[in-house]
Each structure stands twice: as C-alpha cells, then as structure tokens.
Amino acid sequence: MQRLEHSFVTLDVFTDHTFGGNPLAIFPNAGHLDATTMQAIAGELNLSETVFIIRPDENASPRLRIFTPRVELPFAGHPTVGAAIFLAEEAGAADRAPRVLETAAGAVLIDLRQDAEGRLEAFVTSPQPPRKGPAPSPQAAAAALRIAARDLAFAPAAFSAGVPYAFVPVASRELLSQASLDPARWEESFKGAWAPAIFVFTMDDWESGREVHGRMFAPGIGITEDPATGSAAAALAGLLVDLQGIADGQCGWSVRQGEDMGRPSTIHIKATVSNGVVESAQIGGSAVRLIEGKIRC
C-alpha cells in the first residue's frame, strides 16, 4: 500500500521565542485526511494539540479540526491562535488573512495586530461566552492536586467558554509549584464530572490584580500538564469578573503558564462585560515558527 506524504509545520504558541510556549503542529492542507488518520497523527506527534486546516474553497472560511493525542476537541485556544498567525504569514499580510475560522464549537472571530516590537499577535473570540457549571468540592480538588484544603484561597469554581474547566485557586505561587496531579483521586472525583480538566491558579491580588499564574492538568484527553491553555484562559474570564465584581465595560488580564515546565507562556485575556456578565471573551498572543516537515502514512 502506497503511503502519502503530508506536510506540516510546528509553532511555539503564546511566546515570542523558540522553545517557549506551547508547541503546536499544523497540517495546512488536510481536506483529504479522515478523522482516524488525524487522530493517529496527533497521537504520533504527541503534542498537546495538533490542528488540521480544511479549506473547502477560496471563498469559505478555513475549518479547523483539533486533536489531542487522545481525542478531538471542539475548540482550543493555542491551536486557533497558532493557525490564525500561520495563515496570516502564509497570506503575506495580516489584512489578507482569514478573519473567521470555523471550529466544531462554532465560528471564531480573529483579530490580528502587531505588538510594540512589531510581532504579529492573534486574538480570538471564544465561540461561547464563559458560563458557570457544577464545581468540585474543596476537599476533592485539594486531594486531586496533593495539597490540603486549607491551601485553597477560596472554593473552586467551574466555567466553560467551549471547553469546561475546574478552577482551583491556591493561596500562593509556592503552593502552585508544589501541586501535582494524583491520578487515582482525579479519576475518583473528576473523570466523570462536567469539568474534568483542572486549572490551578493564584494571584497576588485577588480583588483587582491583572496577572494570573496557572497550571493545567487534563489526563482525560491525554495531557498530563499543558504549557498554555487558551480555552481555559477564556473560561477564566467568567470567574475573574465574578471574583473582582466587574459590572460593565472592558477589562483584561495576563495568564502566565508553563513556568514550572520550563516553557513559559503568556496568554492575554480581554473580556467585555455587561451587568456583571461576560458577553464575550478574547484570548491572544504571539507565536514562533520552528519546524517544517513531512509525515508519511
């Protein structure tokens, strides 16, 4: 049986330098691949996510299919940001790049801009605004992270902006570094929950701070720990608006993630709020192209 060659590139996303951020593989012409092959490729590459770009025709918005090593996701932040930057670079100019990308969770709006150093940044609007769901108990969350319930800053919460997360606040940066996933306790309390992925985080100023330090564990989808999680950052906007009592207007935060893995990442969050409810959430950052290659299968 003849094997075909499929070209791909990798980008480090949510960083401005190589070997930082979250690695992403992009297959830019994937219309001929079926889901089984896509999943096998993602498993072989074993990155947090691999994105396959499907272009029905020149007039249609590109469609993204996003896979972890184990499952297909309806939406994820770093594949969408990385794909948007890749497509802008391929177009030769940001104003010729697609402004809408289709995902299984819905259409995603893209805002491309340059930062102060001239680097291209992509901001994507999550396909759904953050909405609250059932949260784990403090005891279950602490046990799954091998910390004590007294180490939590307040009770966990759960939000989704397309993908649900359990958000577990810890009282210090030191406790954040000490946390580690207990697979047995995770399976006991989180595997069948509405929000099985855990985002543990801390802030120096819970009431008005604008910088978050976080880590994300998602063993259910084959991610032991993620260096940068855009879909979690989008969902986190809902919790931060509630926590800080923001009633109306626009606000923003930065999420520092991956530092304990040696892959520091920065995700920017922008939220539009009306009557205390997040109407839309954007997450964004930059990316650096690293590898170009081919896979035969």
Would you kindly provide a brief summary of this structure?
With 297 residues, the protein is of the alpha+beta class. It has 6 helices and 17 strands.
Please supply descriptive tags for the structure shown above.
alpha+beta, 6 helices, 297 residues, globular, single chain
Structure overview:
- This protein is an alpha+beta fold and 297 residues long.
- It has a 17-stranded mixed β-sheet that branches.
- The mean pLDDT is 95.
- The chain has six helices and 17 strands.
Helix content: 10-25%
Largest sheet: 17 strands, mixed
Series of H and E elements = EEHEEEHEEEEHEEHHEEEHEEE
Described by the principal axes of the CA atoms, the overall outline is globular
Using only C-alpha atoms, the radius of gyration works out to 19 Å
Mean pLDDT: 95
Kindly report how far apart the N and C termini lie: 10 Å
| Number of strand segments | 17
Structural class: alpha+beta
Q: Given the structure, what is the number of helices? A: 6
Uncertain segments of ≥5 residues (pLDDT<50)? none
In terms of DSSP E residues, the strand content is: 35-45%
